[in-house]
Amino acid sequence: MKTLVLLLVGLLSMFLQSKLIQGKTFLINCGSNATANADGRKWAGDSIPGDNFTLSSTGIVASTSSINAEPIFGSLLHFFPIKFENYDTNASAFDVSANDLKLLYKFNVSEEISWKSLRNNSVVTSVVKEYFLSVNLSELQIEFVPNVGSFAFVNAVEIIPLPENIFNGSINKVGGDGLKVPLSLSDQGIETMYRLNVGGPALKSNVDQFLYRPWESDESFMFSVNAATTIFNTSNISYVSSNDSSIAPVEVYESARIMSNNEVVEKKFNVSWRFYVDPNFDYLVRLHFCELIYDKSSQRIFKIYINNKTAAENYDVLGPDSLTTASGTDALLNGLEIFKLSKNGNLAYVSERIDHNGEASSSKKPKRKALWEAVGAGVIDEGNTVAIKRAHPLSEQGLKEFETEIEMLSKLRHRHLVSMIGYCEEQREMILVYEFMANGTLRSHLYGSGLPPLTWKQRVDICIGAARGLHYLHTGADRGIIHRDVKTSNILLDENFVAKMSDFGLSKDGPALEHTHVSTAVKGSFGYLDPEYFRRQQLTQKSDVYSFGVVLFEVVCARPVINPSLPKDQINLAEWALRWQRQRSLETVVDPRLEGDYSSESLKKFGEIAEKCLADEGKNRPTMGEVLWHLEYVLQLHEAYKQSVDSESFGSTELGFADLSFITRAGQKWEAKLSGLGWAGWVTSALLCSISRCSGLRRSRFGRRNRQRLYARDLPDN
Prior knowledge:
By secondary structure, the chain is an alpha+beta fold.
């Protein structure tokens, strides 16, 4: 399908009204006056004259038709962020309603894409929002309302009539001991949250010839893939009723996961899947079963738990649930769907997942702007300028972060950590007062703000300062402290561009001595988040190291860590830069404003550090102390390079070495006894940065005759 888009700018709302004729599907190619072919279907442009959809005014597509019953329709909204003339769809935010049912609130497509990429541990480029609605009016009206100062857009819309048996009229209440509750779409809407093909591959929408629903693979949602075995059977699969064929395509039932591993069964392990959902809603969980091995009842009996509550005590796929548990049997699952049920006419959730700066937590979009408001600067005492941050008074998450930040900053003091001056918590107001950082965030000096570019030396110095702050966090307390939200917007710069780590609201105490990690819910910022931490929910200091590795590449490339508007292989900065680094071609993606300001040696070493920080497994990543050591070495390489460049402007005889007498070792300190114009400080400094790994000096020729360049030689530790 062509990436066409219908934009609404400066309008209060957009109305999409389709003729609702029972049994007919509407596929709308928004913003187009042509028909497009995709997934084996024809999508009509909404601007085609004489078609079912006519453009009655700017941003409004309208037509009406009466219907006699209350049919159920599936409504699918397709979003693909692109740059359209002067509008950047990555920055749009809007609300969506359907016949007064709120579907989306302050929806940002790029944030949703970022969240799905994180959730699936893969690159996602588009979003499809799927809803089930009962229409008791003469028309279905879908309304898009841009937020103030923003605009709305949609690429395509599907309106699909659904069979009456798409959902059962009554369902079992989880933990209700057999209690059944009614389910009616006449007074509520449903949103699809997850649809998984368990044990099999992802299925494209055209596999489902009835409703064209895509099915994701379940692998990325499992606690442990090794806890189950995948089985396949493509023969003799039949539905209980012919009407059930519309519930799921047969391909879903041709694969399954079972607990056939005897060790797993004997130890009573579970096969478990984990999903992130919006709080304070009811959910419908539909499990799909098809027995692929046995042909009689009571041969496979198992328990089903949902959210730590019993959904089925002794479930038998081929017969009624057993009254007693059969020993030696295992579990089976073919497919899984999770649907969110509307509450008080609302399906929208103001989620705390990901904001435009890439902030994220596992509970969905961390919109930290909803939690904290940067009030700005103030003056206290004798004219001392301070920074003031105010928490949102209605945010429970803001309260938790407020308390954590006070707790952490009260026991931390370091030159490279932002200092807390005081706080206020009165009459539901929560205010933190910090030292004022005149030069703002590191991110603002890398891109997006129009500020002068930082030099290579400034960037390395800033990274060293941030590394020192993190190293202190990890080692300065008994158990250490894990920052958990390391990113360029949390590295602040004072008037002298000294870097200081800030924002400790997500920080956690490190593990006790007898433990290797802290088990905790996943929080952090998308693009910086340690994938190992995300998969296992096991937080370590190496999670900070991973995030810092992303910061290093961000400093080199001066671009956002996630940019959905770029080609697919460039969306994620860490993956993109790492590919170039592994090809030893990092210079290809360096910020062009740094041209001529760095040496290949210092950049090479810098890239190697970042690469090590981004190792897949935490055990293979360096500590922050090791990262700091290598960054200081990068700085020495850069200073040596600048000295050599500066020397080109002098005659060779003026800079010839006089009396390079000898090198001595005093304890663990190396000293270079030199005399001569301007060189002693350089050599001494280079040696001191390599304590315990330096065994001497090596001289090499450069430039004109009689010039010598000295640098530390790395050798293995003794």
